[in-house]
Amino acid sequence: MKIAIVGCGSRHKMFRDSVVEDYSDKHEIVALCDSNGHRLRLAAEAASQPGTNGVATYLAGDFDRLIAEQKPDTVVVATPDFLHSDYIIRAFEAGCDVICEKPLTIDLTRLKMILDAQARTGRKVMVTFNYRYSPARTQIKELIMSGAIGTVTAVDFRWHLDRVHGADYFRRWHRQKENSGGLLVHKSTHHFDLLNWWLGSVPVDVFASGRRAFYRPEMAVELGLGGRGTRCADCAVASSCDFELNMDGDENLRSLYREAEDEDGYYRDRCVFDADIGIEDTMQAHIRYASGVTANYTLTSYSPWEGLEIKFQGTKGDITHRHVEVHGVFGGERAHAGGDAVTTELHLAGEHPRMLDVPHGEGHHGGADPVMLGYIFDPEGMEPDRFGRASDHVAGGWSILTGIAANMSIETGSAVNIPTMLRARGIKL
Ligand SMILES: NC(=O)c1ccc[n+]([C@@H]2O[C@H](COP(=O)([O-])OP(=O)(O)OC[C@H]3O[C@@H](n4cnc5c(N)ncnc54)[C@H](O)[C@@H]3O)[C@@H](O)[C@H]2O)c1
Description:
It holds the Pfam family GFO_IDH_MocA_C. The protein is of the alpha/beta class.
């Protein structure tokens, strides 16, 4: 497969290094594209194989020339979220398939454009829902599929982002809804996709509340950060702020973002307490699925720890799954949790609760990324996927609809019926 990657920021490395280091006998990166020449050069240096002429690079304005000259089979899209649809559609029209980072896109207008282009061209887009591939999450799918707790009736799902990871969404492009759809789309697309996949159903009604309760100027004052600047690099109180992002002190951040700033003014370390942030940090939703299952969902982004807690109620018992990824943030440093930080308890009616052995995987996102990359780049070398983990435009679409409906519900104060919302926009999934 001839692969072109668009968007050479932090996430593209996973795809780039995987092809270069693990799958170069099967695939080749033929081109890289970014709006920032500095990041483009760094990516090209890292992707170039010894003894070759290197990888062709194109600035964003030359994407069509990239397609014409390099004729990729597949385009990997790893740009900020609001740009996904444009590159997906242009790749489709040029006869390419697409591997797209989550979320597929951020709003109904762009979703409809992607779906129309897919129908018109017949091309494929795979949305890389790496969380589905983490062994612990796959085990939950297997338990539910096996009927271990009978029919699932209700779910309680809480996701906690800590004060380093969670804060990061308030520093840069994610912090405006027009770029990311807010965390209910940008982040929760993973969580709502897991729910859709685990439950084998789709969301119908959503009622949500959300607000920015923590990352606010008032909180900075409360924390004694009254004289704060607009970004960490020139902030007078940075050294006493637990939320400081010291780009000069981190080789990766310095080379990838700090040294690239002059070209596009992309500041990676803007103050998380700025007044003009447009996304929520505290969100709750109640969701009713087509299967009748109901779910309560909570996402916070300033938690003292990071991880998830989920309980599935079923007609025969319940499953409680907990994963502590980071057990605390101390002075801006994250303390990662140890090996037994993932637990799954099965409690059947009339029996004592049982702690199950939870499979662990090596690699990022709880061992999810290497498994997913295997299925993307070497599907023949993997076991047939009986869990249906690969996801296309349909799964990608459903995964953002809960968040889009939740955003609408927050705005209007009313519940949103997704079929009605889709009909009004002429969207069929
Ligand atoms: N699945 C996951 O776990 C996961 C994790 C991180 C990020 N992501 C996703 O990956 C994508 C990229 O995130 P990131 O953290 O790497 O962001 P980033 O800001 O580090 O990188 C984005 C890159 O896109 C480039 N870009 C901006 N405008 C462009 C344009 N018009 N054309 C081409 N390139 C352009 C930027 O210069 C930058 O190099 C996002 O969609 C994000 O949601 C997914």
